[in-house]
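Help wanted!
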Amino acid sequence: MDIAYAYGPCIGHMYGGGMSLRFGVLGLLAEEPLHGYEVKQRFEEMLGGTWEVNIGSVYQALQRLERDGLVEATGDRGDRGRQAYRATDAGVSGLQEWLEDPDSQPQLLREEFYVKFLLLGRHPNGQLGRLVNRQRHVYLQRMRDLADQEKIARERGRPQLALLFKGGQLHTEAELKFLDAVVEGMGRD
Amino acid sequence: MSWLVEMSEVSKVFTGGVRTVALDRVTLHIATGEFTAVMGASGSGKSTLLNLIAGLDRATSGRIVVDGIDLTRANESQLARYRRSRVGFVFQFFNLLSNLTVMENVMVPAELAGTPSAQARTRAGELLEELEMTGLQRSYPANISGGQRQRVAIARALINRPALVLADEPTGALDSRSGDQVMGLLDELNQRGQTILLVTHDVKLAAGHGRRVVTLRDGRVQDDARLQPQRAAEPGELLRLGAEEA
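Answered by r_m:
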């Protein structure tokens, strides 16, 4: 399972799916030519370990970018037969366009907990209350982890990454408030 | 494990005007050295809980023992002595005395507890040095920043070497940077063994610093979660653990 997905809404949600990887790869190749494995490493490094990408997904993204004329192979294959890629002019302008557009994806209310909440709500038997309590512990520990991560990122001189972790905490705070609303709702039933 | 705070079946009912049950049979034990955060919305009972543990108010029923002292049986002078010597207070709005210098503010609780002035001054000086406030000893509260005022308040809270530090929304009146510094200071104190009880409505603060997060709702303990701090040393490393259940 993709780590960002496993981690839930606070990080995974923020990057969504394929577009982030596609343009993330393109953005790195617009900086300098890289081969697939370097792209994977840089991408993960940029995201501070929050998103572990499969090398297969990186090659797939590269193939599609090449097919669409946004990147091209450059130089000879190295000793290990690794091919470097760089962004084309079309790639650079496509990247600029993407960077300028706000993220207007619809909010996907697809967390597992939401589905459990809806299913359990159909047959009230007390199970939802127990689940909410256990879910709260998970969110609280997540909050703690993200706060620790923010601190580490700041100490390592990565203020932008620290802000990303702050964003994760704010998302987690919202999830905790949602649990409060669920409890409130159960009280009214 | 030795309990520093033992609350058993504690209720607090306010009867003036409308009868209000602020705390409803709350049982809560806090161990020596713990950093506990009590969280709840306004009206959840968290301020009442703090006031009872602080010896500022009395329970309607139940038993509260802090550091071996039964607060539910203590008389007024015993309670006053308890407040002076066993607990240190850090408030949202600092509560410093404006006509006293930083040094004098820190010394107040020690002098009230009967510590000779010279000894109180030495201890206050040490604390202010630890909190990097040495240069401001002679300043008045009005002339220092909010973050500095809260550090003075922390020094004041510590001067009698209290068994328990009670912090009531300690960052509520601070900008986020000063707030982070104050919380970092409380973390350090706890790492050196100081028992801390933080009361806040802010879950980021509670979960970010407490080893234990107690959530109050309608006067009852709704939840009591123990958290594992610092599960990893590298950015990103924790996220592999983040999906695990606490």
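OP: Thanks! One thing I noticed: The first helix of chain A runs from residue 3 to 6.
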